């Protein structure tokens, strides 16, 4: 349903003394999502995962320039098409209540989302009622302000904003950090449910454990590139190919719990060759000279 | 519950006002007592030559000028607390009466100017902020920055030249046509004389409100919740309508009430240009003709005026922003 | 079919924007040089012009602006451009002096409040509060009046009332720098307060001070002009810009508009030049907070 290949994003910025500089924040991202599946996108902050969501929705900042190939439901996803599809066919579940207008009652905000997706005012109101009921949100919640919501309620309201639309593609941007484990589980199960209804779900997170719980496949981002896309079961089976993915897996508490040494290169100083070369245990001269492209490998097992 | 909060709020505010006026009293008194201006001389003015040294001493004694500073201060403070601001030398009337009647004349002008600057400033700021970087934004900004650096009295002067001298559609001065007694002035004559000074006064405020509103709207447009609204497909104008306006209103209102201070200062200059007999003009008279009681009275009154504005701003918070409760919990 | 999405199309507007972006640094530097030259030019102009054109020429009375007299002439036949330049130069010098004193006060009090904290901080904040509780112009009139008016009165009044915002900025900057990690680190390393002040505080505060000072000038100059205009400032015998404008009031109804309009435009240009200078300096030091 969605396929992205070789997406690049460049920002233009000004330094002290007004020197102009270009930041390559996304170098080469690849991803594809089918209807009814949950694809997790994992990576450290700065790996370009949130920008990917913004690029899909056409809400990158003005100083950003995009390149590469985007396709949605068989047709190219130009910025113009993003603009007409967002909120209707493509929906975002934001990170936190900070993404709700602090001065507007939440019922009204969710209703507004439904209206923007093309429903009449009356229909929108009933879909809000229906959705709130589906997520066990009392009717009185409609009249609350975002700052009056508990963490769990806030999560369910944010999921509601995607559910009131009929969006085929739902992008959940970091929906779990800082939440109580029960709320995390609940939120993840809501996302899985959305996929069961036939929607495609992109789960953006830096929490591999959360990702592995519900995702069918996991894409690993590093410094603005896709380093590996693996099936969830490949992780526990040990079928991981890229050294970064392996290192991430090893860094989990239930595994060896060793952090990946070193730091992600900053977009100001990207290395010439493979972006992972300064941290890779298997680095060789070819790696430093040239960036390896993503390759399709036959499924193992 | 609400009533109790309101009472606590009122008590707090009154207490702060008392402290503030006290501070202003100390400040004014110290300033004036170190001043090289001899109050006796200032009072007698040109007739100084004809008054003997004995008579001067007598006046000084009657005014308690021979007492030490702190006792004079207490004396003066006692009078103030009884509501006695003294007698204006220029107008030969109790200061409180002068201020009351002059302020009445200024109030309508201030009110019109305040509303005009608030509404126009808000509108211009919203347009410029929403169209950040567009030529319309540049134009509005150029206009606002130019206004912000224009001398108030010169803007008033320009309006006078254009509307009163060239087009002759506005009166050149004063609050009433020459020769008409104040009780015979019709409503339209009144408005006719009021409008141009009020417009001149409002022009100063517009720039400030517009620039702040613009900046605030830009901040809002860069916020996470607007990003989310855009992700939902909300159009720019609807974002401004549903989210921008709501979130901008509070700072705009605070600023608008805080602008009472500048408005008051502006009215001094504008009334001077239009020879409009309001409180501002009285301020200039008091300073030029060394009318210390009147000047001090006006200083107190202006502090009260500014304080009222700030209190109104505080009161408006909880109405607009549900996150803020009265009394600061 | 797939297409390649390539945003930076080379439309004329885009090219124009790119050209502007590339040249922003040069433009900013150019603006700073230009603004400085313009203002310096006004300030030194009386020494080049001398007294010529300021004498009464009865045949040249009340001439509207023309090529010979760009700003026209007044009721005594004096050239208004020369009078305005003289007046503005005087006003600028008075304003600059007062603003510099004010900046010194502001820096001193801001540093004191930020460094000592405690009751020093409390007293300074209290003074700032009292100052903000009165309309600025009323405060100016009160102080100018109390110190006896005249040129001295204006300078003292303007100097005493313009330091508050700068003091606040400096105080905040000191507090922020003080609590930063590298200052803590220096403390742990046993560096003296003076060393910290020189190596960490000064580099942060000097740019703020410079921009603050320059942005203070226009306010000071406008207030000087306002005080002179209402008659509480410079003596009517000095040709300050406020005095020239006040005089023009008397000739308004006769239709000699240029007496009021032209000197005002010059004053406006000078004030704008200061604003422009301050903004450009600020964007050079700190590109993020400036308006592009
Ligand atoms: S450095 Fe070489 S071996 Fe390591 S990840 Fe990059 S390309 Fe692969």
What does the model show?
With 301 residues, chain A is α/β, with parallel strands linked by helices. In chain A, 32% of the residues lie in helices and 24% in strands. Chain A has two domains: 2-89 and 167-181 and 192-289, 3-Layer(aba) Sandwich (Rossmann fold); 102-166, no CATH class. Chain B is an all-alpha fold and 329 residues long. In chain B, α8 crosses α10. Chain B is globular. The two termini of chain B are 14 Å apart. With 292 residues, chain C is mostly helical. Chain C is built from eleven helices and no strands. In chain C, α3 packs antiparallel against α4, α3 crosses α6 (150-161) and α3 runs antiparallel to α9. The chains are: A alpha/beta (301), B mainly alpha (329), C mainly alpha (292). At the B-C interface, α1, α6, α7, α11 and α12 of B face α4, α5, α9, α10 and α11 of C. The structure holds iron/sulfur cluster.
In short:
The complex is a heterotrimer of chains A (301), B (329) and C (292). Chain A is an alpha/beta fold and 301 residues long. Chain A contains ten helices and ten strands.
CATH class label of the largest domain in chain A: Alpha Beta
Overall mean pLDDT score of chain B? 80
Distance between termini of chain B? 14 Å
Ranges of chain B where pLDDT stays below 50 over 5 or more residues in a row are none
Overall 3D shape of chain A: globular
List keywords for this structure.
heterotrimer; A: about 300 residues; alpha/beta; Rossmann fold; 2 domains; six-stranded mixed beta sheet; 10 strands; about 30% helix; globular; B: about 325 residues; mainly alpha; two-stranded antiparallel ribbon; binds iron/sulfur cluster
Protein topology:
The complex is a heterotrimer of chains A (301), B (329) and C (292).
Chain A lengths: L1 E13 L5 E14 L4 E5 L6 H9 L6 E9 L2 E2 L2 H7 L4 E4 L12 H11 L4 H14 L16 H13 L5 E5 L7 H16 L3 E6 L2 H7 L2 E6 L2 E7 H6 L5 H8 L34 H5 L12
Helix pairs in contact in A: 3-4, 3-5, 5-6
Chain B lengths: L1 H32 L5 H6 L8 H10 L6 H13 L5 E2 L4 E2 H36 L4 H14 L3 H15 L20 H35 L2 H8 L4 H23 L1 H15 L4 H10 L3 H29 L9
Antiparallel strand pairs in B: 1-2
Chain C lengths: L11 H11 L1 H26 L30 H37 L1 H15 L3 H11 L3 H12 L2 H15 L2 H8 L4 H38 L10 H10 L7 H28 L7
Bound molecules: iron/sulfur cluster (SF4).
